[in-house]
Amino acid sequence: MNQRKERTITESKGGGVFQSFAGTIKLVIKLMADRRVNPLLKLLPIGTLVYLVVPDIMIGPLDDAAVIGLGTYLFIELCPPDIVKEHRDAIKGIFTGEIPDPIDEDADIVDAEFWEEENKS
User: Fold this and answer.
1) What is the pTM of this model?
2) Is 74 within a domain?
């Protein structure tokens, strides 16, 4: 009379803490390199990194983690949402734009053959 339910293990679709952290770091780097993001806004992540170099105001590593986490969060939240979405999609490998035609109609196309000649010296 023992009725046990079968348990199944499901794979996480989110990726986990380390994958999320790596994605956030990639996003911040891409946003810092994007010219459409306000240069004054880019001072926020730079300031959080400077905070690590300057002697601590509080004792312990938790304040460092809190300041870096808060600085990263504020930077991403204050960036334009369409640019953030564009870079997040690029990191995930999602392409939402149009694929450009590799052959430009206005370009001159040269059709030729290639062969190698042996050096007979």
Assistant:
1) 0.55
2) yes
User: CA 121 to CA 118: how far, in whole Å?
Assistant: 9
Q: Is the dihedral of CA 34, 73, 78, 55 positive or negative?
A: negative
pLDDT tens sequence across 64-113: 788 888 889 999 999 999 999 988 888 887 665 665 556 666 666 667 78
CA atoms within 13 A on the CB side of 117: 4
Instruction: Please indicate, yes or no, if residue 119 is contained in any of the structural domains.
Output: no
- What's the domain range around 67? 17-92
Residue 3's identity, in one-letter code, is Q
Which distant-in-sequence residues (6+ apart) come within 8 Å of 12 by Cβ?
none
Domain total in the chain: 1
If DSSP states are collapsed to H, E and C, what string results for 2-56?
CCCCCCCCCCCCCCCHHHHHHHHHHHHHHHHHCCCCCCCCCHHHHHHHHHHHCCC
Query: Each residue of 16-38: pLDDT tens digit?
Result: 777 888 888 899 999 999 999 99
